Amino acid sequence: MALLLSLLLGVIACGGSDLSLEPAQKSGNGNKGAGAETAEFPDKDLIVTATCSATDRGAEVTVTGWDVRAWEAAALRTFDVPADVAVDRKDTDARSPLIELCGDAFPGLGGANEGPREVPEDSLRQLFDKDYMRMAVLLLDAETGGTRAGYLDAKGKITELSRHDRDAFTDAPGEQNAVFSEDGGAVWFTQDIDEAKVRIVSRSVSGEHALREHGGGDGMHSHDALTVASNPTRGVFGAGLQVSPDGQRAITPISGFGWNIVNLPRESTVINTDSDLIPVPYDSECDPRGWIDDVTVLCSHGRAPYDAARTNSFSRLDTSLLDRHESIENGLLSEPIIPSTDRENTVRAISPDGEQMIFASLQGSHYTYFRSSTAPGSSPERISAAGALDALSSGDVLEWR
User: What is the sign of the dihedral through the CA atoms of 107, 289, 385 and 339?
Assistant: First the structure.
């Protein structure tokens, strides 16, 4: 689940365009700006989305940078993914953020095809380097059935970071969860040690691609993924991870224990029940959707919370006030952010300063898109620009710069 600049969306008019359930599930890159394919991704006022579609050779991943002032495509990258890259679960046990991204392209094999997706875990953004010139991949070894880490550039070139000696009497390579470091200088991944343990390692994208070991532990769960946290740089392996902007804590669900805030150590770690966990109280009915700031989490509430005023709304959870007593006390949960309605709302993006969010709102069979302050008592404003429908109706939002 590290952005620092605020949104300038005041120029977007209120009015309205609806989007039916059917178009919301189609990939598209409409309203492309001139020269977007070769343009650099701007550092501000940009929402970056990624979509995936199946092809005869494998898959095609399209990354688009949308200018949030005009809702036009400002930059575009297309990655032609060959068949020897792990992209679906049909023929492999590979674990990669790319498989999650391409779930809708391979129905029933990678993810839900149910309209706009929530803010994804951090590993999906880290599938790409900073400038979206390279994508971390797992290469399928047809002979051994193993997987090896590498990366694919936008020109279609694959770089193998790990090589396997087929003449040696050894296990098949079991490299998983390949992602980029924040500076793009290394690909981090995990190695399966046995059915209960993983090792966190990395290889530089330059030179001899020397292997560095960073730690490991128990945590072989099918839904776990690797995230590279900052301050300092280290690998974190766990489920549904969204790391706070300062890199010191993360949101994670623990099987049988619900949502937790985990205080991260300064070294690479595998999240499990022995980690420094603080449970999100059940009576908060908080489904965490991302970080507003270093200590505040955006909570989503469903259709039938105990507190009716929170129905289909959002709240702010102050994690600095959490203790281990698992109950709502000390005002740690804010008043509702938006009014309670019959609309089902899906957070698509949180602004880099945490002051704004964009969400999809389903009423009947139609989606509309709104932006809102993350302050309690806010009034959402509908986004009417046609380009916003292209930007927000399919795939994942990787970041808001």
Answer: positive
**Highest mean predicted confidence (pLDDT) among 115-124, 237-246, 253-262, 300-309:** 237-246
What does the longest C-alpha to C-alpha distance in the chain come to?
66
Q: What pLDDT is recorded for position 244?
A: 98
Contact 383, 18 (CB under 8 A): no
Q: What proportions of the chain, in percent to the nearest 5, are helix, strand and coil?
A: 10, 40, 55
Q: Does 185 score more than 90 pLDDT?
A: yes
- DSSP letters for 279-332: EPPGGGT-EEEEESSSSEEEEE--SS-SSGGGTT-EEEEEGGG--SS-S--TT-
Lookup: tokens for 127: 């599938």
Helix, coil or strand: residue 100: helix
The string of pLDDT tens digits covering residues 192-202 is 887 778 999 99
* Cα–Cα dist 5/401, whole Å: 6
Per residue in 278-317, pLDDT tens?
999 887 889 999 999 999 999 999 876 678 889 999 999 9
- 261 and 269 Cβ atoms separated by less than 8 Å: no
Burial class (CB in 10 A: 0-12, 13-18, 19+), 382: middle
Give me the pLDDT at residue 132, please.
97
Backbone torsions φ then ψ of 321, nearest 5 degrees: -100, -5
Query: With bands split at pLDDT 50, 70 and 90, how would you rate the model's confidence at 30?
Result: very low
Look at residues 125, 101, 118, 337 and name the one whose alpha carbon lies nearest to residue 243: 125
For 26, other C-beta atoms within 10 Å of its C-beta total 12
